[in-house]
Sequence to fold (330 residues):
Amino acid sequence: MLRRRFCTATASAVATAALPTADSRPTAVGTSDVIRLREGMGQLTMLDQTHGGHAALERVALTAAAEAVGLQDRAASQTIRQRLFGIAADYTTTAAWSCIDARQLDRARLHVNEALRLAGLSQDPVSLMRVWNSTAILSHHLGRYAEGVAAAQAAQSCAITRRDPLFGSLAHARTAVAHAYRADCRHAIRSLGYAEEALTRAEVRPRPSWVAFYGPAELHALTGIVHSRLGQPAEAEAASHRALAALPAAYQRNRAMTTVDLALAQLHQGDAEQACATTEAAFTLMSGSPLPGRLRVLLGDFYRALLTLAPSTTVAREWADRYRSEWSPA
Fold:
């Protein structure tokens, strides 16, 4: 418990330090203000990948979003005003994602709705695509699977997916996951094929920091989730191995999530001992931070599956004794 409190306080301090310093002069707001606010977004993105979603990250993101909205009256042009709305939408979506990762789903829905409004005002297809992507993720956490498919398809319809195959690939991959949660094998596999084909056409170019997570490694990870939801554990295990081989070391939370997905795939193939050993890496990866809510829920899923598939084994009892205090809610 003391370790969790220390790590939470540390993450809070880092998040607060990432907040861009406001310019208090009553001058027209221009490009330099837009650049300053966007730089703060990159810092929060890195913090999220290391520590996962938490209250401090949500708070700082909302503070920055409020600043961007507050600068509207002094915007030097309509273009600057729209860019500020886009920045506010991005920060609000960051707050929503932080809540999703922390499993604060009611707050996440409020933030997603506000981000959708701001993205519409910005007329920025990238911001809009990002909001729909987060809405699709939130929907399957809420168990609203048909809504998840609709949100993922809305992401596909954004103009940026036609201009940049990487965004198109992400939208198709998210659609595949949404179909898998509805047990729609045919459409899920077809969407994965579209995602793979689009990613082969994606070129290296400047993009917003929030989408840096997406590439071959993340597509492999999402492919593993799709196969797992479709009851194909061998395919899920193979995809998870490919994801872990390609994921950069800095993406600690993503690596931990994919590691537990791998363990679940191994468990569903009858290898409880190997599955329990695999989860050790997830705890090691997050040893410097409290476990994000999504990861705790996934570990809870693993434990329930372990009790169902190997209820009387020594390895199941040892796993629970060793890790219950780590993954159970604080």
